[in-house]
């Protein structure tokens, strides 16, 4: 091999890459290293938990807590009927592409810290239950699950996500997912400090309220745009659907906690745009997935709530998210029928 040094070059290059990669093990890249989107939200939820735990108001009002993915961002105190707003506090722990594992761990953590909600909304999307989509490793294992958490869930992590997680351990840069375009933009404009939450505008916007993000879906797009978006999202999430095994146990574990603590619980299937819903129908999602979720909910005294049937609002920000304008009537209905019904 020494007589043919070019054979050594790939080996040297490989080890050089490994050495450079280990730079991303430095503390600066962990904890509070906010890029955009997912990392901002998942960091904010940890900050939000501390706010909730130390909020004196929750001792004076009833407490509602929302868990779910981005389709649940608009659940807000502002949506509670005005005559009841003074009686309620609402915290929203929804996360981008969040899976039931994430919802379970937050509820469990809050209960252990002495926070017991009066009402819980668990919002579930069928895409999270297809293990082939890779949502367990990214974003959950990467951004929201520490060593103790990983040890707890590892038995339920699909092989594909285990492999991806192993690659993240070998090549740290994968787990960090550095956004070089964002880095260059911040470097040129002198905004590198925005990697810290205190200076990050996106974090400040999300952190201004109690976890709700009303800015996410403020538009009501026209049919032509929604039709195109339905094709785009279908190509990403609904090329196929297979009911996986990793998430349903955590829905069950979540409901076991709510029943044991006598927490009134609503399990919501968020509404999506009609053309995208046809992809659900193609794979018989209602029978394959929702029927299991609904039956499990009822068995633990929770209430299944199919927004695709219950909601008459047909305004959408994109094919996967209803417009925030729909949530006023939806929350009014939820509060009057389930969270805080008027005695007759």
Fold-level CATH name: Rossmann fold
CATH class: Alpha Beta
> What is the terminal separation in angstroms?
88 Å
Sheet having the most strands:
5 strands, parallel
For the largest sheet, list the strands in their spatial order: 2-1-3-4-5
| The number of domains | 1
Low-confidence stretches: none
Shape: globular
Q: From the 3D coordinates, which CATH architecture would you assign?
A: 3-Layer(aba) Sandwich
Strand content: 5-15%
Quantity of strands, as a count:
7
Structural class: alpha/beta
The CATH fourth-level homologous superfamily: SGNH hydrolase
Query: Could you tell me the radius of gyration in angstroms?
Result: 22 Å
Query: Number of helical runs?
Result: 16
Rounded average pLDDT: 89
Helix-strand sequence:
HHEHEHEHHHHHHHHEHHEHEEH
InterPro entries: DUF1574
Transmembrane segments: 6-29
Keywords: Membrane, Transmembrane, Transmembrane helix
Protein name: PF07611 family protein
What does this structure look like?
The chain has 344 residues and is an alpha/beta fold. The chain has one domain (32-339): SGNH hydrolase (Rossmann fold, 3-Layer(aba) Sandwich), CATH 3.40.50. It contains 16 helices and 7 strands. The protein has a 5-stranded parallel β-sheet with strand order 2-1-3-4-5. A two-stranded antiparallel sheet has the order 6-7. Helix 2 (38-53) runs parallel beside helix 10 (201-207). It is globular and about 80 Å long. The model has no long low-confidence stretch (mean pLDDT 89).
